[in-house]
Every structure is written in structure tokens, then in C-alpha cells.
Design brief:
The chain is an alpha/beta fold and 369 residues long. The protein has 13 helices and seven strands. The relative contact order is 0.16.
């Protein structure tokens, strides 16, 4: 598959067309019907949660949020493939994969409320925290992959980055070293067409982002990121490559960010309604749902019944996050290092003194009144 869809051939890998019809039977993955329906339901849950989170943010109940809307097949397929002991190294638009690994919505809500407990995943194994500094997480992924190789462990690292991240030095350093070390890391580029407001054509002169794999001597492929089957098959084959010692793999998942870059962004300033309408026909949930309905695995009635249940559960977890309690002052300092260095201890002491001074000043002003 990777030879046939070598990035030098300039051909994108897809299995499902926009109407939910299989157009590439050769590479249709063998996935159980129950697992396929479960994957669709997980994607639907992630989209429902995403849209509701946007609403919470507009109500002033949560801080800046990066929508996942339109990119659910990439994280959804990852969630269906990744195993408990595998590592997940997210950027910040991988809700579906994080939920599949055991991260709770409540924890994600806490994170976007600015609470350090939102990065303390109590039931998720081998998941790094959300990384906002662009592409910095990829060097960590390469390092984890190297540790897996040294320890001869049967694990794979799934690392995410956006198209804009491929312009960062960390991306190139990570893929280069991973290639030199032949470590089991799957680098997944979510090419959603824009790095904030910068289109891909202004990020690189390369024919694709997948073609960058050639320079580093690693296997690469450009995939229709809105095609669940194509993503699932690509990840399935990538895992085999990593487990055989031939890793890493670089995947360019071509998708479209239907929402804003974050809730601080206005995409109408840099993209057209015609472009958005064109990508609407490629929506990942619509395509998979069409396939499921045609094969009598799902129905509109089932969807209508399940969405209210999802909304109730999402609301429950959000309210729990809202009522989590006061933010502990110590959390600002204690999670940066395993053992707090002296300079941070000094900063915490200075902050304690500031709080005492502030409280004394308020008390004095109250007495003088």
C-alpha cells in the first residue's frame, strides 16, 4: 500500500467516496460491524461534545477552545486502532483519540477552564498532556519511541501535529531522528488547510506534506482524512510497519477545519463560503453514516434517540468541571518538575508574601471605612 501510494506518485489514498460508497475494495479494512458502529458513535459523541463546548465558551463558561469540528475521522480512526499500552502524543485537536484512551470530558473541560487537574488523566494510560506550543510534542514522541525500542516493548506512539506545525523546526528534528533511530512512531499531520489563517500553499512549496517523508528516509502517505476507512487502514498498516522495526511512518491526513482555529479566530476573514460548501460534501460523519445506513447498520431514528443522551452526559460532566472547586495555588508550581527547583520555590514564597500583603491591605481599607 505504501509503495502504491508513495507520495512521489502524487496520489491520495481513499476508500470511501463522498456518498458513502466503497471505491477501493482492495484496501477496505476488515473491521467488525459492531466495532464500526461503535467508531461512528464515538465520532458522533465527539462532534456533539465539540459543538456544545463551543456553546459553553460563547456563554463565557470556558476559556479559549480549539474546535475539532470536521476532523473527527482522524482522531476517531486513531481511537479505534490505538491500544491501551500505546502512547498518545496529542496537539490540541484530538478529542476523539483522547476520549478513546480514557481521558474524560470532565478533564478536558478542566483543562480549558485553566485548571492543572485537566492534565492529570486519572484513568488514561500513556497519554501526554495537550501541547499548545506548536510541534514541540513531536520531539517527545521521538524520544518515547526510542525508549520503547531500547526496552524492546510492543508499543507504538501516535503523535499529532497540524499542517502549520510542519513549518516548525521541532517537526523536522523529530521526524529526522525518528528515521535515524527507526523507532515505532506514527506522525499524523492533520492538514486542515490552514495554520490559523495561513493556507498550506504559504507553508511550503512541496507538492504535499507527505512528500517530506522522502527526504528523511521514512515511509509516508497522503490520505483522505475525512474517510474513516482510509484512515483506519493506513493506521493499521502503519502499526505493522512500526512493529516490524521499519518505523517511523509519516501520514498526511487531508481534512478541513469546519470551525474556527480557536474561539478567538474569525475564519470568514480568510476563507470563502464557496470553499466551505465544497468541503461540506466531504464531511467525515456524513460519509460514514451514509455507508452505515446503506448497509443497514445504522438509522436516522437511532441517531435521533442517542444524541439527547449524549447531550445529557456532556452537560453532566461540564457541570462537574464547573463545580470542581477553587484552583490550588500550589498547582501553578508543583507540576513543572518532579522535584521543585529552588527558583520555583522562591517564586512560590514571593507569591505567598504578595497574597499576605494583598489581604492585609484589603483589611486595612475595610477598617478605615
Amino acid at each position: 500500500m505504501f509503495n502504491e501510494y508513495n507520495p512521489l506518485n502524487k496520489e491520495i489514498f481513499r476508500v470511501l467516496d463522498n456518498d458513502g460508497k466503497i471505491i477501493n475494495k482492495t484496501y477496505k479494512p476488515q473491521i467488525d460491524n459492531d466495532d464500526l458502529v461503535k467508531a461512528y458513535k464515538n465520532m458522533l459523541f465527539a462532534r456533539t461534545a465539540d459543538l456544545m463546548t463551543l456553546s459553553y465558551q460563547r456563554q463565557g463558561r470556558i476559556y479559549t477552545y480549539p474546535p475539532n469540528y470536521g476532523q473527527e475521522a482522524i482522531a476517531g480512526a486513531t481511537g479505534a486502532i490505538i491500544k491501551k499500552d500505546d502512547w498518545l502524543v496529542p496537539a490540541f485537536r484530538e478529542m476523539g483519540a483522547m476520549l478513546a484512551k480514557g481521558v474524560t470530558l470532565k478533564e478536558l473541560f478542566l483543562y480549558f477552564m485553566g485548571n492543572e487537574e485537566g492534565s492529570n488523566f486519572k484513568n488514561a494510560v500513556n497519554v501526554l498532556p495537550i501541547s499548545v506550543p506548536i510541534a514541540s510534542q513531536l520531539t517527545h514522541a521521538a524520544g518515547i519511541g526510542y525508549a520503547i525500542k531500547i526496552n524492546k516493548e510492543d508499543r507504538v506512539v501516535f503523535a499529532f501535529v497540524g499542517d502549520g506545525g510542519t513549518s516548525e523546526g521541532d517537526f523536522h528534528e523529530a521526524v529526522n531522528f525518528a528515521g535515524v533511530w527507526k523507532v515505532p512512531v506514527i506522525f499524523i499531520i492533520q492538514n486542515n488547510q490552514y495554520g490559523i489563517s495561513t493556507p498550506v500553499k504559504m507553508q511550503t512549496a512541496s507538492d504535499s506534506l507527505a512528500i517530506k517523508s522522502v527526504a528523511y528516509g521514512v515511509k509516508g502517505i497522503q490520505v483522505d482524512g475525512n474517510d474513516f476507512f482510509a484512515m483506519y487502514k493506513t493506521l493499521e498498516e502503519s502499526v505493522k510497519i512500526c512493529q516490524s522495526g521499519e518505523g517511523p511512518v509519516l501520514i498526511e491526513a487531508v481534512t478541513y477545519r469546519k470551525g474556527a482555529h480557536t474561539t478567538s479566530d474569525d475564519p470568514t476573514k480568510y476563507r470563502t463560503k464557496e470553499e466551505e460548501e465544497e468541503w461540506e460534501s466531504k464531511d467525515p460523519l456524513k460519509r460514514l453514516k451514509s455507508y452505515l445506513i446503506k448497509n443497514k447498520l445504522w438509522s436516522e431514528k437511532e441517531e435521533e434517540q442517542i444524541i439527547p443522551q449524549y447531550k445529557e452526559e456532556i452537560d453532566r460532566q461540564f457541570i462537574e468541571a464547573e463545580n470542581f472547586g477553587d484552583y490550588k495555588k500550589e498547582d501553578v508550581f508543583i507540576h513543572l518538575y518532579e522535584d521543585m527547583p529552588d527558583d520555583l520555590k522562591q517564586q512560590m514564597h514571593q507569591y505567598d508574601n504578595y497574597l499576605q500583603w494583598k489581604e492585609a491591605r484589603i483589611n486595612n481599607e475595610t477598617k478605615s471605612k
